[in-house]
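Researcher: Please translate sequence to structure tokens.
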Amino acid sequence: MKSLSARLAALLLLAAAVTVLPTAATAHESCESDQDVPIVLEFGALDGKDRILCAQHAVGQTGEQALADAGVETQETSASPGMLCRIDGQPTPTQEKCGTALDGPGYWAFMVAKEGQDWDYASVGLHEYELAAGDFIALKYQQMSDGENVEVNAAADAQTREDAVVAGHDEKASDEDDESSTATTTVLPVAIGAAFLVAVAAFIVARRKRQ
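Model: Translation complete:
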């Protein structure tokens, strides 16, 4: 009887452990801190896809470093210092050679703003611009024929910060979903088996008490 009680206790512990086994949590990567810098990319007449990224903990870095941390592929002219001439392969080599100087029909305008304020040209280039708390930056491809007034479609506001995607977050979320699904598939049969054993043991104990 004592042995059976000990077994029952062990089974109950097993069932409890299985029940509270944590599943993989889906972390929410955000750009909510003023140390995180939203980066707006707008391709204008080019074929690239507009998007809003987040360079986390980017305050104190240069604009160039923030772009690299956010996973943005860039190319510069060969002059020193170089000028940004291509983002994610746009404009194409046919549209812009990216030689010693820009020779295409447009350029990547480097714009900056504080939250709630209007966009304006940065006073220095990506190499020199040091990001400060609350900064937003934007890079928009501006056609020469459109003049110097650059209109960034995304505002430097709370909505843009909320929409900013942290580099690698989509892949991480997908991996965590797969892990969660695997954990659920493994745990469920074990939990059912443990519950069945506990029920059988409880039935046997109750029957022996009646004898």
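Researcher: Any highlights?
Model: The two ends are 13 Å apart (CA to CA).
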